[in-house]
Amino acid sequence: MHDMNVSSREPRRASTLVAVLSVVAVASAVIVAASLVLGLAESLIASAPSVGGKTRATFSTDVVHRLDALVAAFPGRAGVWIADRDSTAPLYAHDANTKVTTASLYKLGVLMEAERRVDSGQLRYRDLITIGADDVTEEGSGYEVGAMLSVDDALEAMITLSDNGAALALWHLFGGDTIDATLARAGMPDFHVTFDSTGNTVATPRAIGTFFGFLARKELVSAAASERMLARLQRQTINDRLPAGLPKSTVIAHKTGNLEGLTHDAGIIFTPTGERVVVVMTWDAYEGANAFIAEIATIVYAASMESGGAVDIP
Predict the structure, then answer these.
(1) How many helices (H) does the chain have, and how many strands (E)?
(2) How far is CA 67 from CA 80, 216, 230, 282, in A?
(3) Which residues constitute the domain of residue 81?
(4) Count of domains forming the chain
(5) What would the mean pLDDT of 170-180 be, rounded to a whole number?
(6) Distance (Å, whole) CA 55 – CA 47
(7) For the whole model, what pTM was predicted?
(8) CA-CA distance, 171 to 192, in Å (whole number)?
């Protein structure tokens, strides 16, 4: 006779062994899958958008929290784009794809088109333009109707003084649609200088940031044209926003813009550890915008000086 208790335990032992082996197999599969996912994630991070083979940088959590808190406390709306010169990905972004009335930031597109034409020989700095009746609007200008000035002087007044008459004279010379086409070909389809039905031009903070990214890398039009644009933007005389809280020796190439309820500043801050592109566009904002923009620049500058402010992703 067979011992029924012994014979009935053998299948149970076999079943238990099979179950254990199954668990081990599943666990191994999970580990392998996790390793593959982790490897893929690391590959994606390593291949994040970069320029010149350099790794992408990112702000520390502390810096991001400080910027988030500042934006949340602002009594208006804001679009922000902050980037390292050598990356097409932002260090920080908030509402960066929102189309915002540009105010005088549209003059950046006019500047680019002028430099494109100078580079190609279609335009010379010494060429003369005339301020027309359509160029002097209620926003004002330092020039009267009929005034003649060189292209170089018009560009200087448009950028460093934000003169509207000089800007519109150049805008009428080039044509808004032509400038838009130049911006689109260069990779900025969301930067428009053609006036819409409300009489405004629009752009996203990301598009303005892209403009300054190209400029920082000296890839806007050409290296020579980029150098000329950088030098002109560094001569900006309206310095009550991005530069306001920075050390006086800080070099910054930037352009401001403002209309009722709108206050902007965008440019390149040359920090001791490299260039930072900073774009801040505010709307529905009637108080505190200048200080808000200045504080963002201060945080960015301080982060560049701290070891924890920006880290490389291997």
Answers:
(1) 9, 11
(2) 10, 23, 27, 15
(3) 57-105+115-121+184-312
(4) 2
(5) 98
(6) 8
(7) 0.82
(8) 12
